[in-house]
Amino acid sequence: xxxxxxxxxxxxxxxxxxxxxxxxxxxxxxxxxxxxxxxxxxxxxxxxxxxxxxxxxxxxxxxxxxxxxxxxxxxxxxxxxxxxxxxxxxxxxxxxxxxxxxxxxxxxxxxxxxxxxxxxxxxxxxxxxxxxxxxxxxxxxxxxxxxxxxxxxxxxxxxxxxxxxxxxxxxxxxxxxxxxxxxxxxxxxxxxxxxxxxxxxxxxxxxxxxxxxxxxxxxxxxxxxxxxxxxxxxxxxxxxxxxxxxxxxxxxxxxx
Length: 256
Prior knowledge:
With 256 residues, the chain is α/β, with parallel strands linked by helices.
């Protein structure tokens, strides 16, 4: 799984969705970066796991002492360091690291954040100081379920246990206390077919959703275009093309 993910993210090379025109309707009040802010101060040392191209941590992370931001993709870290140049006052250091082979000393960080990435609960527990906090936001099994059912595959489609439940149980077993898990529901409305197409090509929502380029003018053919067109037909609304998101948030404390 890690090897396949690495190949995917090395190919993508960045995680910036700013060009995709989409409006989000939040059906659940829970914000990842607000949770981080509530559990840090201006002196906190934080670790951000699976930071991708660094866009989110650079734009949204609260004012803390320092953020060490990691990703296991060399290409993502290169992108993050380029993006960092536009945020001269942000206290962020980017470094390559595998979430499942964390290399930091025990009891180093006041808070560890993980957004849409795989985690090892025991390693996170060991790296946190006593009374430290982990904040997680992830994509759950039923995320984008309508398009996954239409294509008959997708991220976590065949998982026996929901990712949110696995993370919760792993955190509990690792020793975390006061674990709060929240189901996050969102409706995303994509302005055009090109916008939702760009999302599907840039994320692992659907396994192996791809396009083929032809000739010097790079004419593009979308694989499984018939299924894509059927989804657009079913879920096109006045607000845009609807994608139903099912995410989860977890906040847990390391206590004595």
